[in-house]
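Recall the central idea of this unit: under ordinary conditions, the amino acid sequence of a chain determines the structure it adopts. In this exercise we apply that idea directly, starting from the sequence alone.
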Amino acid sequence: MALKIVSTSEAPAAIGPYAQAVRAGQLLFTSGQIPLTPAGELVTGGIQQQTHQVLTNLKAVLAAEGVTFQNVIKATVFLKDMNQFADFNKIYATYFGEHTPARSTVEVARLPRDVFVEIELIAAIDVESNNY
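Accordingly, the structure predicted from this sequence is:
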């Protein structure tokens, strides 16, 4: 199976030796996104502002392969402080609506650039309709 490296200027460029996402057959695996703007500037503010930026970045990476949050089958969320879970979850829910992919959420000791949140996704790609 051939792998396709996915990249878009609508999300921040990788800041290390990794891709924004990799497509393997009918699956798209995103790298973890942190709250950087497409220009690479760190979003200040609290968990809600940072979550918005992370999900905006992920939306752009998904769109580069013609899919949306409705195609997401698994999300992995890394939070700096699990006490911020409720505030994070309010923003997360606005991006996914009624669609509820599988999800793991864990508290971690530290994230890159000392941000509050990082999220990675796995999405399914339906080549017939790009819709699940």
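The first helix runs from residue 47 to 63.
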